Amino acid sequence: MRTFSRRTFLKAAAAATIAGAMPLAGDFTGFVRGAAEAPVTRTPSTCNGCSTNCAMFVYVKNGRLWKLEGNPIAMKNEGKLCARAYGVAADVYNPDRVQQPMKRVGDKFEPISWGQAFKEIGDKLTKIIDKHTGSSVLWLCHGGKEAYAQMLLDEIGSANYVTHYSTCFTSKTNAWDKMVGTQLTSDINRAKYMVFAGRNYAGGIMPGAMKKLMRAKERGAKIVVIDPRLCELAKIADEWIPIRPGTDLALYLGLAHTLISEKLYNESFVRQYVFGFDEFWQANRHFTAEKAAAICDIPAETIRRLAREMARNAPASFLEPGYHGLHNHYVNSTQIAQANVIVNALLGNFYQHGGLMPSASPKLGKLALPKRLQPEKGARADGAGVNNEYPTVETSRGIAQHMPDLIAAGKVKALFIYHFNPLRTAPDPEYQKRIINAELVVSIPVDWNETSVHAAHYILPEHYFLERMEAPKPISGNIAHDYPQVAMRFPALKPLHNTKDVLDILKGIAKAMNIDDLYPFTVEEDAAAQLKPLGITVDKLREVGCYEVPEAIKPGFPMKDGKPALNTVTGQVEFSVGIFKLHGRQGVPTWIPPLVSPKADNEFRLIHGKQPWHSHSVTSNNPHLLAITKSYNGTWMWINKGRAEKLGIKNGDIVTLEAKIEYKGERRTVQKSIPARVTEMLHPECVWIPSGYGNFSPRARFGYQQGVNYNDFAPARVEPLSGGCMVQEVIVTVRKGGN
Amino acid sequence: MSRFERWMAAPAAMVLVGLAGAVNKIINGEHALGTTAAMPWGLLIAGYVFFAAAATGAGLIASLGHFSGKPALMALERRGMFLALSLLIPGFGLIGIELGNPLNMIYILLSPNFTSGIWWMGFLYSIYLALLLIECYYSQVNPTNKNLKMVSALAVLNKIAAVCNLGAIFALAGVRLFWNGYYFPIYILVTAILSGAAALLTASYLTGKRAGLEIEPAIVEALGKIMAGCIVIAAAMTALKLYANLQAAEQPLRETAAALVSGPLAWRFWLGEVGAGMLLPLALLLIANFRAKHTFAAAVLILIGVFAMRADFIAAGQIIPQVVVEGVQHTAYHVYSATWTEWALLAGATGASVLMYAFAEYKFTLDAEAADTFADPECVADLTGRRKLTV
Amino acid sequence: MAHYAMLIDASRCTGCAACRIACQMQWQLPPEVFFNRLEFREQGTYPNVRQDIVPVQCMHCDNPPCLKVCPTGATYKRADGMVLIDHGKCIGCKYCMVACPYDVRQMNERGVPEKCRFCAGHVETGGQPPCVATCMNDVRIFGDLDDPNSEISKELKRRDVFQLAAHKGTKPRVFYVKSKK
Q1: Angle between helices A289-296 and A300-313 (to 10 degrees)
Q2: Which of A135, A220, A475, A603 has the fewest CB atoms found within 10 Å of its own CB?
Q3: Closest CA in chain B for residue A26
Q4: Which residues have CB under 8 Å from A353's CB, separation 6+?
Q5: What are the sequence ranges of the domains in chain B?
Q6: Alpha carbon of C120: minimum distance to chain B alpha carbons (Å)
Q7: What is the mean pLDDT of residues B301-325?
Q8: Residue A8: is its pLDDT beyond 60?
Q9: For chain A, what is the domain count?
Q10: pLDDT tens, B50-66?
């Protein structure tokens, strides 16, 4: 229930959106006149609504945000923006932003000055490091742009840079890293036949990908979407193939089996560039399309047809490498990613136009800084890359979802949480709340998110993304584009509140710890140094917003001295991963059933996904986006009509979801109620909930207690190979009625 | 404090409640109302239609008295006019508060749109108000003025046009199937007379009761017959309309009729419209053979019932989601629930109406018979009870 | 004189609602006032099911019922085809809301039933309405029918189109591409 009355909500929203800039007189010709007269500035930035980083121009009128326009050069958005972009931009005026540094006193927060906050945090940190070494300090973040934090960790000797990726997609990056040594991306622009499984570019939106897919459709390319749900991408696809969730590995193995057994695969590619083919075939030669069909609920004939059509169009065809949809969420996610690499390699589409191409990445420079004497780092606290813990997990990403365990074990004493909200976006919030038990928890957010409210000791609010300058960022990637691109965030608005840039926050903490000159530069100087090798200045980038390096990526398998030269042990695509074997696991993927499966009439697998207008928890308190939710019953849980009828559930009925959360020595039952959307567009064995709801921060008032979140029902677990959180290995019971 | 004054405390309190509602509406605008984009017209519009139609009905009966030559009805002429005025002005108040921007009403004159039913409503009811004021004025100052006859004739045409146009606002806009056609102009005319007669009877009965006098049986019978007749016509029309709509080829029509008969509007339809508005009063009227007390009870029930009719027909026209894209599954019905503000404003309008009429009774000579027959002011005073107040 | 119109290819829409909020920003509307919406339609039974998403907005009818019923002429039609509202003349009677067969009128904070403005004041100088410009799937095309070289003129010639609720005689200026079944 919303705590706001309708009127206050509107007032707040109105204050957040219409105050100031717009003339309030009725007739809109007056508005246009006013609009024309007011001075308008246009500042380049990149969207902060998700990690796609769409490049855009921010229009500011009379010092107030007016509107946005996509930057037409940027390959990920080609001038387009999705709803979130507008929502997160407007959120600069959200009254629920943290407006100044805060300190926890009991259950409440009290304002604190920046100077005092730095002093207290610096003192505590110094004491903790003195007593427990720098290895007891951990920086937990979204990831992708925290080079400055890395510098502080280097200085104190902590290896604990941990990103949110283990709650998102690390089984994919891990498998690709270990099998291919790089991440290849789908060349939608030139493909003739595209298969998407667990990748919904119209839900977890990348506008540029949709532009490219639409163009591909117009030129006659085929799009096949495999998803338990008729997702937004499936709506425009040529074919939607529903699959039993958790069994994509079986489908992939069935595809591989067909490709090999029918000799459809690219034999010369395999001979030249693949290591471990025989081992894979040996382990899977009996895993026929029929066997796959029985598991994944897709007819064997369909599996064979898919394989044949992919082969017929190869190398201008691909099985999209995927993202959040399949990776991390199952016990077999690493093998799913492995099998994905294998199917594509069998098509011989690596480094081929229309198949998979490398990300074009601009070669950025680095600020020349004096070398510093720094302590040696100890082992990572999260266990990533550590023998006998999680040796095969990527250390560049780490494991984010088991922080309370690390704290309870005394491994982590001080925790910085930056631009990340594990209490809402990692499994089991009741468990995650124990983050507060660390000696020092500092949250660096923009709004009153759950983590800040329920777990932080100090909250140091960052400037909103429209208020800050950030170092340049390569914005080509995820999908193939021939030219590298770089974009930058420039401040479009003056800071509204008593907030700071993350660099200034780090400077303040370092200074309080008596670390001198750790950051002897400004963001602008850093930006200039990074852009230098590209031959452009910060001012030039300010003008264009997005710069494209005029050097095209060429197709062709990387070779050195006549030999394949991937960044793997053999230089080839390795179907069998050596390091997995080294740690007692199988090197090649074979069928592994999901951990749990629904059995009874009222049991379902709980799966989730992004709704096109929400971005997990980042947008969960935005009045405009929540109004869209209200218009379209966006919080409702999807359930298959046939199954719903058996349970007596009609569209719009309130249902109660129940799951058991079990750990060693701990057992809880979770019950949440939500209206049901009864639909034919979902596999009968699962229920689906959008990922952007279930806000439980009472200080984020617009979204408070709207909808439920998949993380409520999942225990915090770690998939051993890639560190994934396996949140779709959850069975819920569904019954009609509220609790 | 006299009994009369004490009795007036109730409507005065209602007016205060109404003022609170008005203030809330003025401050919070549309958010003070339960209306939505899907159901933009709510209880205030229903209230307005109720008051305006009752005012017209009362006015028509007054005219009837004037032209019919029937003594029983002639006796009601002035009372009818003043009652109409007391109903019309609060009705105007309701719609004035309902309007988002009432101050822009000047544009009804400055840039009239003759294709708009609401424009004609404004026009016809303004004339009605003007004619009523003239008639009321002359009734007190110079009841035998020759021009009054012409004014009254004009007024009859105006009243019929106004009330039919009121129906036409809904019927001829051509977009909401349930309202479409010539049904509602006629239906509103009939039910306007019904509610006008009921209001007149209620007012006369209470006036008499206050003065400790029996209401003239001929008047009771005349109004009772009008009421009974109107009920029969309205019931027949309602039954035919719903029967036809339930069988209609158009799904929205079937759904609307179902909403009334067995859907979200059913309780108000059966209890209010049919029960209080038709069956019970008809039974009371016929069984008691137009005895004053029973007829009065019937009249009060009719007023409640007709208000339910107004609310039902406003809601019914909008309750079914419009089909914009064929095949889209909508929720079955739009939801509208009135807010306290809307109820408060209705209470306020009712209170204002009572107060205005009581004031007229107190201040003016409403009894034609009294004025003509009992020339002695003392007698008039006795009859109307006015004297009791002045001393 | 221009002759503005819009063409919507609903088969391309994936329901992201960017059009709605981009428009809200352009015109600085509060969250619950929006000038375009989506209608969702599900057909068939699992697994043979299809979804349609149809964007709906003011159709800028050539025979606008809302204009016909407006008592003060606050709703008016410009020579270039746009149906607009003079806020200063609107009394807020909501007759237009009741009369609109497309249910697109929305009461704004100032008691005026508002709707899509076809971006009057923005498109005359060559700007594209944000609902068009922001759409990643290029669902909408906006332009001048009097210019034979405009994209919309060409597409209207090329495509098989229809109008919503055309049987109501509204003569909408928003056209829809007929979908291939």
Answers
A1: 120
A2: A220
A3: B101
A4: A187, A190, A315, A316, A555
A5: 10-320+331-390
A6: 22
A7: 94
A8: no
A9: 4
A10: 999 999 999 999 888 77
> CA of A298: which chain C residue's CA is closest?
C47
Closest alpha carbon within chain B to A652: B331
Residue A552 lies in a domain: no
Pairing of strands C75-77, C83-85: antiparallel
Instruction: Give contacts of A652 with chain B, Cβ < 8 Å.
Output: 331
* Mean pLDDT taken over chain B: 87
Q: CB C92 to CB B104 under 8 A?
A: yes
**What 3-state DSSP class applies to A82?**
coil
Spatial CA neighbour of B359 closest among B115, B85, B114, B150: B85
Whether the pLDDT of residue A119 is over 70: the answer is yes
| pLDDT value of position A25 | 35
**pLDDT at residue B382 is higher than 70:** no
C38, containing H or E segment: strand C36-45
- pLDDT for res B108: 87
Do A225 and A148 reside in the same domain of the chain?
Answer: no
Q: Residue A244: inside a domain, yes or no?
A: yes
In a domain? residue A55: yes
Could you tell me the CATH number of the domain that includes residue A378?
Answer: 3.40.50.740
Residue ranges covered by each domain of chain C: 4-61+100-108+115-177
Q: Does A7 touch chain B (CB under 8 A)?
A: yes
Partner-chain contact B112 C71, CB within 8 Å: yes
- For residue A247, give its domain range: 170-358
Q: Which of A93, A127, A153 is the last residue of a domain?
A: A93
CATH for the stretch C4-61+100-108+115-177 = 3.30.70.20
Query: Which chain B positions have a beta carbon within 8 Å of A6's beta carbon?
Result: 31
Residue of B nearest to A678 (CA): B329
CA atoms in the 13 A half-sphere facing the CB of C4 = 26
Is the pLDDT assigned to residue A9 strictly greater than 60?
Answer: no
Compute φ and ψ for A639, nearest 5 degrees. Answer: -145, 140
* pLDDT over 70 at B389, yes or no: no
CA A90 to centroid of chain Cα atoms = 22
d(CA A278, CA A275): 8
Q: Which residues are CB-neighbours of B112 under 8 A, at least 6 positions away?
A: B119, B123, C71, C72, C73
Give a yes or no: residue A586 inside a domain.
no
This complex has an ipTM of 0.97
* Span B184-221, pLDDT tens digits: 999 999 999 999 999 999 998 888 777 777 788 888 99
Same domain, A334 and A259: yes
Mean pLDDT of the region C2-21: 96
- In this structure, the answer to whether residues A44 and A139 fall within a common structural domain is no
Instruction: Using alpha carbons, list the distances in angstroms from residue A204 to A84, A228, A233, A243.
Output: 11, 16, 10, 19
| Best of A7, A9, A680, A681 to mutate (most B CBs within 10 Å, chain B) | A7
CATH number of the domain residue A67 falls in: 2.20.25.90
* Topology given in CATH for the domain delimited by B10-320+331-390: Formate dehydrogenase/DMSO reductase fold (1.20.1630)
What is the structure's pLDDT at A585? 93
